[in-house]
Amino acid sequence: MKITLLTGKTYDIETAVGFPLKVVKSPRAKRLTLRIDQQERLPVLTLPNRCTAKRAVEFVLSYKEWIEQALSKIPETRKFTHGDEICFFGRTLKIVHTPRRRCGVMEEDGSLCVSGSAEFLHRRVKDYLKKQACIELWKRSKQAAEQIGCRLNDVTIKDTKSRWGSCSSLHNINYNWRISLAPECVISYMVAHEVSHLKHQDHSRAFWKCVKELYPQAEEGKNWLRRYGKELYSYE
């Protein structure tokens, strides 16, 4: 990104540091900050208004080793392919490409059979998982909402880049489709977490008490997400 200096000249920070970098100028930022964009696999530099290009470059280079280590820990992007075994709502499914069958995507004896061209296999599997996740998570969320005496309006499956779920004031819950690939403890925790927001639109003690009443092993699911959740984001 090229930034304009007070002199009117432009300065390319990415060229100066010598590696790909995303630069964001923020009038609300009080200091220079660095974070890693897991999806784009890029370091992100946030600049306050009054910051010299020289200072920005020095700041980034001082964290070069940290950036390299952080980027190396990001899992490689994955696509569903023939022969893959996935965990879907606690059951193991083996993806089997059956190009000549006209079944679309179908579960059969522990296999997930996918017809059609191989180039569309990932998209077809993903679409199927999202559709089934919507059905299953609606059922689980509805049941949990009834337990705490709350109304659930709708459940939507999203392909979000950083959030596992959300709950609106209109009693709508969104889930990231990737949680369907997580262990059962994670799915149960996420349902308990989002459904509890129907009653408590915060993270107060009352909220966490509600979560644990719905799912006593909530801490197990929460810890798993914290430790291994980023691996699920490797799926496109």
Automatic annotation (TrEMBL):
Q: Which organism is it from?
A: Candidatus Scatocola faecipullorum
Domain YgjP-like metallopeptidase: start-end pairs:
30-227
Where on the tree of life does the source sit, at the highest rank? Bacteria
* Protein name, entry field: M48 family metallopeptidase
One Pfam family it belongs to:
YgjP-like
